[in-house]
Amino acid sequence: MSSPSLAARDASTMLRRNLLHARRYPSLTLNLLLTPVMLLLLFVYVFGDVMSAGITGGGAGRSGYLAYLVPGILMLTIGGTTIGSAVSVSTDMNEGIVARFRTMAIHRGSVLIGHVAGSVLQCVLSVVLVGAVAVAIGFRSVDATALDWLLAVGLLTLVSLALTWIAVGMGLSSPNAEAASNNALPLMILPLLSSAFVPVDAMPGWFRPIAEYQPFTPAIETLRGLLLGTEIGDNAWLAVVWCLALALLGYFWSRSLFDREPK
Q1: pLDDT of residue 2 exceeding 60
Q2: CA gap 89, 112 in Å, rounded
């Protein structure tokens, strides 16, 4: 077999390994899924009318705020799911299995590729599950075309890939799984500081730059435009640039950490 074929085979083996771990130990994924679902239900059924009145002038009610909220919740879901990747990578590094992999005749990068591919698949599945909850409580995207849905799926996948590489770097740089979970927590906090829950224009002037100049806000506004037909403007290319920059940063950071010889 050629070197690319061997690398693909080893990466697929590592992917199956990570998916089996996720299936056998689903508690971490379920716990991370619980937060976006609870936030979705809380903001729709407890704060929905008040938030809608502030955003739309009170005409749309809970259904209007639900439509506004769902794109941000989906991005929050991705950020939360990637925390599990940081924990999984840190666990592998500290329990000795990676050291054993280093002594075996396998492609060196397949370990990280397996983690990244598995995490992206889990992110997509998590988004589908949270999206199903949103649809069950009334979310509809009647104006989105087939192309809009295709672009939305592509954007969610690209965000998942970028955040996963960053999470992998956080996991490799952490001394244990608990530290990895804490270090990756900003991936779930940043969506809370974006336009996920309220428009940037409604925020205080001192806080507005925090929401504007971060990766989640343009990604959320782009997804919102694709699903709801709102104005996208410059957010599309900003979201893509952010994702590519984070993916490259996470990749080279993770590779440099993984290639270091253990002490």
Answers
A1: no
A2: 8
